[in-house]
Amino acid sequence: MLDSDLFRALIGEASLAPSVHNIQPTRWRLLAADTVLMLEDGRRRVPVADPGGHDVRLSHGAALEGLSLACGRHGLRIARVELDERPADAAGLRVIARLTLASGAMVDPLAMAVAGRSSWRGRFQPVDAALQGALGKLASVPDLHLVPPGPAATEIAALGDRAGFHFLCEDEHRRELLAWMRLSRSDPRYDRDGLNADAMGFGRIEAVGASLVLGPLFPWLKRLGLAEPLSRERGKAAHGAIALFHRPEGEDPLETGRAFYRAWLAIAAQGLGACPVSVLADWPVSNAALVQRHPLPAGRRLVNVFRLGRVVSGAAAARARLPLAELIV
Asked: How many other C-beta atoms are found inside a 10 Å radius of the C-beta of residue 187?
């Protein structure tokens, strides 16, 4: 059923799934013609931002859904997912799940949005009928609670800046974030992983400024009251909507990650750009404020928040990805 060429093609498509800070922690191994191991590279962690590994496991879930979508495009399906919790091996690789593939799948409509999905951190186009129509269609996505452009969305964007600054004020969190930012094209990791300047919508001057503001100048700027205004992103949310992504309480993050990727693809399928504002869900203060202001269905929890809107026609943010030779082990 699977040969090496088809396996490489599937993993190439699966690798387009999002991951926390774009750390790409998922690895793959072909065991037999119908059996694939999904593994975790233990060196790919963000221990300060994600001490319990929740977001890493969510990232594995997104990669798993990416593989499922890729399989469907080739007439295959994931027939069985067997979770595995064995310890990591000497190379730091830990098996997450054993996947059994079978034939006879239909192409998932969301698979068509995979190639065009990216994190859009630029500004949005003015509100128009196309945006309103897209939001109307997204209203049927069960895991998304939409807040249309307007005062409520602006309020959430401001709360996102407050949440982001809260984490930036934690030295270890800020250093970890900066370690995964690729702010110069001379960085050999620029097109491999992390958050590069193109993906974040930074020009050359903005990238240099970010390296200084988040680096050596932050303590001084904070004392002068300048760090917070320099870190604001609410202006990028103008003309945009907000989508609260929610899932059942107590759900395995692996399943949450699969649903998260599908929700993002549903947004992309409507021709909209989107960017997760994870800090809004991660900071208990902002999480509670959002749920109080925008109640979720019973038994659901707020997992993430998107800002979304129309982007310039033809615009696409760059995506850094590790080579297949490092993803297939």
From this structure: 14
pLDDT of residue 179: 96
With contact defined as beta carbons under 8 Å apart, do 85 and 52 qualify?
no
Model pTM score: 0.96
> What's the pLDDT score for residue 319?
84
Task: Determine phi and psi for 160, rounding to 5 degrees.
Answer: -65, -40
* Most distant CA pair in the chain, distance: 63
261, two tokens: 């990727």
- Res 315: pLDDT: 67
Question: Pairing state of beta strands 300-309 and 241-248?
Answer: antiparallel
What is the three-state SS of the chain?
CCCHHHHHHHHHHHCCCCCHHHCCCEEEEEEECCEEEEEEECCCCCCCCCCCCHHHHHHHHHHHHHHHHHHHHCCEEEEEEEECCCCCCCCCEEEEEEEEEEECCCCCHHHHHCCCCCECCCCCCCCCHHHHHHHHHHCCCCCEEEECCCHHHHHHHHHHHHHHHHHHCCHHHHHHHHHCEECCCCCCCCCCCCEECCCCCCCHHHHHHHHHHCCCCHHHHHHCCCHHHHCCCHHHHCCCEEEEEEEECCCCHHHHHHHHHHHHHHHHHCCCEEEECCHHHHCHHHHHHHHHHCCCCCCEEEEEEEEEECCCCCCCCCCCCCCHHHHEC
Q: Tens digit of pLDDT for each residue in 229-284?
A: 999 998 888 999 999 999 999 999 999 999 999 999 999 999 999 999 999 999 99
Give residue-wise pLDDT tens across range 188-205.
999 999 999 998 888 899
List, in order, residues 6 or more apart from 98 with CB less than 8 Å away: 31, 35, 36, 37, 38, 81, 82, 84
Residue-wise pLDDT tens digits, 270-325: 999 999 999 999 999 999 999 999 999 999 999 999 999 999 876 666 689 999 99
